[in-house]
């Protein structure tokens, strides 16, 4: 369980997150949706402890950061490090033996090539493979499907379902609603730094429709496309 | 004209921001850098007859930095073909201009002409963006600093080993020590840039243990890199064993201090006062005794924010 109470975050005078209260339970997948700049990544950074914040975050396993696999929107890679070395680095950091890394290479990545030369999708898959090798209990996946090919998309969805079945907590952000509706138990709408809606699986279609109305509105008409 | 005016004004604004970010006054640092550049140029030309060649090489290597493929892809997408090549020509010309002026002052028209020709021709060069060849390293077990650093400076390490061999052949102990300290100097560069916060956050270790682990890794791996030099010197210069050991220990101290200094302002780059302290200790080694604990406590304070 991860319990967030009264979490707020500001950058100078700019309030990014305001009084967030939410509880994440074992064996569930939570989707976080919101416009660009709504505060999703900031929220993830606060949960992981990368960003300082006010309010409290408690978790079943402490410290939370040592049991969390965080997939960043754009994973950072050093200029001359191979895929294999990257996985080892993340495992070493958590004192985990990576074992046979080739067995864990489910995305068939060229592990002995420099990671910086990978395509966007390959970089994402490598980062995911590395946090899976860490054997975390909690997963925060920021846009896990971005830039990833359709085959890997299917594979990632299957991985998420397996992790959920084994009792892990998964918090996922995505701009692709169809993938979230397939894997999530709950979807939370983040607007202006606060959760404004919580929707269960049965009402995902309604949420999607409402989001279209809110976010599209008459903006297309304003473009005056000819 | 407006396009170039805007582009170069933006470049200049970025330069000023870099200098301000480093705690320097932009205009003052430009004046000081110009004065330092020409002072060093005069010094170089009084020291060796090959100064002109070194000078040209330095100028071209600076201009070469504008050949980075991704940056140029952006410029190609943004500008028309004519504007792209004009921009690159102007960039390269501005980069080599201070060198060119000095060569003209030293009455070296031939070299100045070669510099103009090469820097102009370089506008057609874009550096490769990917390398299919992966250089193996003995540092596989503990990524990342030595893996990245070794691959970046592999050629220079070979040069250091070559200099060691020369020191043995010509029985020049100082040259041997120079190559040993050169190896430690290169290792120091592995720790100059703060890594992305994610790569600190992933660690299970607490701040103090994290720093000690970094130092331990650096000592083991730098020993591995310096081993051929140290062993050769110990075997061939037995009369200087004490000096060799002292320099080796000095190398470890420099490394430890560099690692600790790196995290004193983390996740920002090391700031100017700390950089000055570090540079002073390089010249006055006894300062280690005070600076190592000072940097350690400052780094622990910064890292605690992320590592708890």
Topology of this structure?
The complex is a heterodimer of chains A (226) and B (308).
Chain A: E1 2-11, E2 14-24, E3 29-33, H1 40-48, E4 54-59, E5 68-71, H2 83-93, H3 120-133, E6 138-142, H4 150-165, E7 169-173, H5 177-183, E8 186-191, E9 194-200, H6 204-216, H7 219-223
Parallel strand pairs in A: 3-7, 3-8, 5-6, 6-7
Antiparallel strand pairs in A: 1-2, 1-4, 8-9
Helix pairs in contact in A: 2-3
Chain B: H1 2-21, H2 26-47, H3 51-64, H4 69-78, H5 81-105, H6 109-121, H7 145-169, H8 173-189, H9 198-201, H10 207-236, H11 241-262, H12 272-283, H13 288-307
Helix pairs in contact in B: 3-5, 3-6, 5-6, 7-8, 7-10, 8-10, 8-11, 10-11, 11-12, 11-13
Q: Can you describe what's shown?
A:
The complex is a heterodimer of chains A (226) and B (308). Helix content of chain A is 33%, strand content 26%. Chain A has 7 helices and 9 strands; from the N terminus they run βββαββααβαβαββαα. Chain A has helices spanning 40-48, 83-93, 120-133, 150-165, 177-183, 204-216, 219-223; strands at 2-11, 14-24, 29-33, 54-59, 68-71, 138-142, 169-173, 186-191, 194-200. In chain A, strand 6, helix 4 (150-165) and strand 7 form a beta-alpha-beta unit. The radius of gyration of chain A is 18 Å and the shape is globular. The model of chain A has no long low-confidence stretch (mean pLDDT 91). The longest helix of chain B has 30 residues, at 207-236. Chain B contains 13 helices and no strands. Chain B is globular. Chain B is mainly alpha-helical. In chain B, 76% of the residues lie in helices and 0% in strands. The chains are: A alpha/beta (226), B mainly alpha (308).
């Amino acid at each position: 369980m991860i319990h967030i109470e009264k979490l707020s975050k500001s950058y100078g005078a700019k309030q990014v997150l305001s009084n967030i209260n939410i509880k994440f339970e074992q064996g569930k997948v939570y989707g976080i949706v919101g416009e660009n700049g709504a505060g999703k990544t900031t929220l993830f950074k606060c949960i992981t402890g990368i960003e300082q914040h006010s309010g409290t975050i408690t978790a079943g396993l402490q410290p939370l950061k040592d049991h969390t696999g965080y997939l960043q929107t754009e994973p950072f890679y050093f200029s001359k490090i191979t895929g294999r070395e990257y996985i080892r680095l993340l495992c070493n950091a958590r004192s985990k033996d990576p074992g046979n890394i080739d067995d864990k290479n489910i995305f068939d990545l060229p592990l002995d090539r420099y990671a910086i030369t990978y395509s966007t999708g390959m970089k994402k898959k490598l980062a995911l493979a590395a946090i899976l090798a860490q054997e975390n209990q909690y997963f925060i996946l920021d846009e896990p499907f971005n830039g990833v090919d359709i085959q890997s998309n299917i594979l990632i969805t299957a991985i998420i379902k397996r992790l959920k079945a084994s009792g892990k907590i998964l918090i996922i952000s995505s701009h692709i609603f169809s993938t979230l509706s397939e894997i999530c138990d709950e979807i939370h709408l983040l607007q202006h730094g606060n959760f404004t809606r919580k929707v269960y699986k049965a009402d995902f279609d309604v949420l999607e429709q409402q989001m279209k109305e809110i976010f599209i509105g008459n903006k297309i008409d304003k473009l005056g496309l000819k | 004209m407006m396009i170039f005016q805007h582009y170069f004004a933006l470049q200049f604004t970025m330069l000023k921001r870099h200098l301000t970010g480093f705690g320097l006054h932009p205009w003052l640092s430009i004046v000081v850098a110009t004065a330092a550049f020409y002072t060093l140029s005069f010094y170089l030309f009084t020291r060796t007859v090959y100064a002109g060649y070194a000078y040209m090489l330095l100028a071209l290597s600076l201009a070469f930095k504008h050949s980075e493929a991704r940056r140029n892809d952006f410029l190609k997408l943004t500008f028309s073909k004519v504007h792209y090549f004009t921009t690159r020509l102007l960039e390269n010309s501005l980069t080599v201009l201070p060198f060119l002026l000095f060569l003209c002052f030293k009455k070296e028209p031939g070299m100045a002409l070669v510099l103009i020709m090469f820097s102009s021709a370089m506008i057609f060069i874009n550096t490769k963006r990917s390398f299919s060849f992966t250089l193996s390293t003995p540092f596989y077990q503990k990524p990342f600093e030595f893996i990245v650093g070794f691959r970046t400076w592999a050629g220079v390490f070979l040069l250091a080993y070559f200099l060691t061999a020369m020191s043995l052949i010509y029985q020049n102990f100082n040259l041997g020590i120079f190559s040993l300290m050169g190896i430690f100097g290169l290792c120091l560069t592995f720790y100059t840039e703060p890594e992305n916060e994610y790569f600190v956050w992933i660690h299970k270790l607490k701040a103090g243990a994290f720093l000690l682990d970094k130092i331990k890794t650096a000592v083991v791996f730098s020993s591995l890199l310096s081993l051929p030099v140290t062993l050769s010197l110990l075997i061939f210069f037995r009369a200087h064993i004490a000096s060799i050991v002292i320099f080796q220990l000095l190398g470890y101290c420099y490394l430890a201090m560099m690692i600790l200094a790196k995290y004193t302002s983390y996740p920002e780059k090391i700031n100017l006062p700390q950089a000055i302290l570090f540079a002073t200790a390089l010249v006055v080694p006894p300062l280690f005794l005070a600076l190592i604990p000072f940097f350690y406590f400052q780094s622990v304070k910064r890292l605690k924010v992320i590592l708890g």
